[in-house]
Amino acid sequence: MIELLRAPLHYQRAAREVITYAVDLRQLGDEAYTDGLVHLVLSRQREDADGTISIGRLRDVLCDISFSGTLMPALRRLDEEGTIDLLPANGDVDRNTPSELRAPPARLRLPALV
């Protein structure tokens, strides 16, 4: 906390925005909070050479979150709403293939904003 007091003004303003975002998400419930947290972390990740982010790297950053109970459901929700594209280890996903028949996701892509 002391470091926030010592930080430059522009950093303090950014910290205030993140705190407001976190409080607003918490008021929407656990799923919305987790989805927002995951999306914020992903938006700050550097993409690999192929333009994707490995789920393993995301797990390293969010190591305190249960993978199968919390993180993977959040990733699936973000995928369903089109915020991210979940991808298998190789190739892309045919969205016409039901999710239960797709290869397990190993990486993801943040769609470009147009």
Task: Name a few traits of the molecule.
114 residues, elongated, mainly alpha, 53% helix, three-stranded antiparallel β-sheet
Major β-sheet strand ordering:
1-3-2
* Major sheet details: 3 strands, antiparallel
**Class by SSE composition:** mainly alpha
Q: What portion of residues belong to β-strands?
A: 5-15%
Q: Report low-confidence residues grouped into runs of 5 or more.
A: none
Output the radius of gyration.
16 Å
Q: What is the global morphology?
A: elongated
Number of E strands? 3
Relative helix content: 40-55%
**Separation of the first and last Cα atoms:** 38 Å
Brief overview:
Helices cover 53% and strands 7% of the residues. The protein is mainly alpha-helical and 114 residues long. The longest helix is centred in the N-terminal third of the chain and has 20 residues, at 9-28.
Blueprint of the fold:
Layout: H1 2-6, H2 9-28, H3 30-43, E1 53-54, H4 55-61, H5 67-80, E2 85-87, E3 107-109
Question: What report would you give on this structure?
Answer:
The protein has five helices and three strands; from the N terminus they run αααβααββ. The protein is mainly alpha-helical. It is elongated and about 50 Å long. Helix 3 crosses helix 5. The protein has a three-stranded antiparallel sheet. The N and C termini lie far apart (38 Å). It is 53% helix and 7% strand. The longest helix is centred in the first third of the chain and has 20 residues.
